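TA notes, week 10

Several of you asked for a full example with nothing omitted. So below is the full record: structure tokens for the whole chain, then the designed sequence directly under it. When grading your own attempts, check the secondary structure regions first.
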């Protein structure tokens, strides 16, 4: 009974705050193949959305790479398209939330891309989570002989502590 009253009171508080505010919020989700942006009213209703593809490179077997510049540009295009699709002005956006797939992004001290590709092209500075370039070295590890500091998983992921030269040569 007490929980019901607290829940009802909380709902009234949320409605009161929402009624006092005007504007929209944007949710951005960066996945493996695309960036998705949605415009939402403050009550949670999606008003509009947009999707922009992300480039992906596979320079060798088990290598999967992306470009942080490409993702950033696709994010901007998706957000601008979602705002246009919603028929609102950017000044009406009062908040934004950003979520991204976990991958390794290589940037230098100057925040410029560092290549992770065997091609040496600095455009490709992300090792995507589905990358298996370290599959053979990881497969040589055995569950019955643990290696200090190594976590074995069902699906091996890249060893993030390897040197840049090693990344490009394997």
């Amino acid at each position: 009974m007490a929980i019901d009253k607290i829940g009802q009171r909380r709902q009234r508080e949320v409605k009161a705050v929402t009624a006092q505010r005007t504007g929209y919020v944007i949710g951005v989700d960066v996945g493996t193949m695309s960036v998705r942006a949605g415009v939402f009213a403050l009550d949670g209703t999606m008003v509009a959305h947009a999707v922009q593809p992300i480039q992906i490179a596979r320079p060798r077997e088990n290598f999967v790479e992306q470009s942080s510049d490409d993702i950033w540009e696709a994010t901007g295009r998706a957000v601008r398209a979602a705002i246009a699709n919603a028929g609102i002005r950017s000044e009406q956006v009062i908040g934004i939330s950003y979520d991204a797939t976990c991958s390794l992004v290589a940037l230098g001290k100057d925040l410029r891309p560092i290549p992770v590709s065997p091609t040496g092209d600095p455009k490709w500075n992300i090792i995507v989570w589905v990358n298996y370039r370290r599959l053979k070295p990881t497969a040589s590890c055995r569950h019955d002989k643990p290696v200090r500091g190594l976590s074995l998983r069902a699906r091996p992921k890249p060893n993030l502590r390897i040197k840049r030269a090693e990344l490009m040569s394997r």
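The beta strands are 24-30, 34-41, 46-53, 65-66, 93-100, 104-105, 126-127. Use that as a sanity check on your answer.
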